Amino acid sequence: MADRQVKIAPPWRVAMALLKRATTPADRWLALFLALAIVALGWLTKQPAGATVTVFVNNRAVKTLNLFQKQSIQVDGRLGPVTIETGDGHARLLEYQSPRLIGTRTGWIQSAGAIAACVPCRVVIQINTAPTTTPEYDAIAQ
Amino acid sequence: MTPIAQPRRDLWIAYLAAAGIAVHVLEATLPGPGPWFKVGLANIFALVAFFKLGWRAAAAVSLIRVFAGSLALGTFLSPTFLMSLSGACGAILIMGVMAWLPWRWGPVGISLPASLAHMGCQIIAAHFVIIGHSGLFLALPFFLAGSWITGLLNGILAFIILDRLDNVWNILDEPI
To answer: Which residues does chain B have within 8 Å of residue A113's beta carbon, measured at their own beta carbons?
Structure first.
């Protein structure tokens, strides 16, 4: 009896064949269009990089730091000192006394509007929008 | 995928809605990031209804599933239910628009926009009833990317079910 080689199609080819059978041409174009639209939406809503970070203690802004200046300051939170580090365009909050260390675990933040917070310490840092790079006067003032 | 006779339509709507409710309840027990983000396998039956019985039947299956599913889970009239209902309404509306367009759609072509509309309407509802923060909309592209994937998956599963049902449908449709 001659050995017959049974060829089994690899799974990805089975999946592609199923996809091809399951869709009409209109389906495929629509899927592509929607995927591109979602990517475009993600790109459009991407927040610009921030320039400064504001430190809030007990809901009051106590300090604003430049994100591009390497710096490390300490503020007094409700549970003890909290360190805020800045540099290279991002900032982070380091607390060691809070139960879950959510603020520390947030890590470095850089986009405008992003926040890192230690709620039990009552310390929040928020990145501010970058100031416009063009001078703030108009044609008449020039 | 041939349309079926009038007398059995309501029966089929009931069958599909029942299947949808069962999957809805089963899916609620699966772990996930939250009740507003799951694969939405229950919507497969609305898709089957759309292709077999038309848009009105799909709307019926979807709405019955949302109401009865929430009653079964005890979330009736809760924020979760409101999000689910608004999502279903958005999906139904977009299905109607797709049916009206001249191109020939398969299950995937209906499932994808319906899934995205479902997510979009859910987020809008969430904005009003749960998180009144505009930062929610910044996460929208990520949610939509997730629903693109689940929409594709549901479309393919609906195609497989429709494919198999073609053999069963006519047998079940014989007069008793």
So the answer is: 135, 138
Q: What is the pTM of this model?
A: 0.75
Query: Residue A19: which residues within 8 A CB-CB, separation 6 or more?
Result: B156
The kind and range of the H/E element at A87 are strand A80-87
Q: Does A35 touch chain B (CB under 8 A)?
A: yes
Q: Note whether B156 contacts A34, CB cutoff 8 Å.
A: no
For chain B, list residues whose CB is within 8 angstroms of any CB belonging to chain A.
103-109, 112-113, 116, 135, 137-138, 140-142, 144-145, 148, 152, 155-156, 159-160
Residue A37 backbone phi and psi in degrees, to 5: -60, -40
| A-to-B residue pairs, Cβ atoms closer than 8 angstroms | 64
pLDDT-derived band at A89 (thresholds 50, 70, 90) equals: confident
For A24, which of B104, B138, B144 is closest by C-beta distance?
B104
Which residues on B lie below 8 Å from A24 (Cβ)?
103-106, 109
Q: How far apart are the first and last CA of chain B?
A: 22
Task: Supply the DSSP symbol for A49.
Answer: B
CA A32 to each of CA A18, A38, A98, B80, B91: distance values in angstroms, whole numbers, following the listed order: 17, 10, 47, 31, 19
Burial of A121 (0-12, 13-18, 19+ CB in 10 A): buried
The answer to whether the CB of B25 falls within 8 A of the CB of B69 is yes
Given a contact cutoff of 8 angstroms between Cβ atoms, the answer to whether A42 and A55 are in contact is: no
User: Across the interface, do B107 and A30 touch by the CB < 8 Å criterion?
Assistant: no
pLDDT higher than 60, residue A62: yes
pLDDT in tens, B147-156: 999 999 999 9
DSSP letter at B8 equals: G
* A4 dihedral zone (left: phi>0; alpha: psi -120 to 50; beta): beta
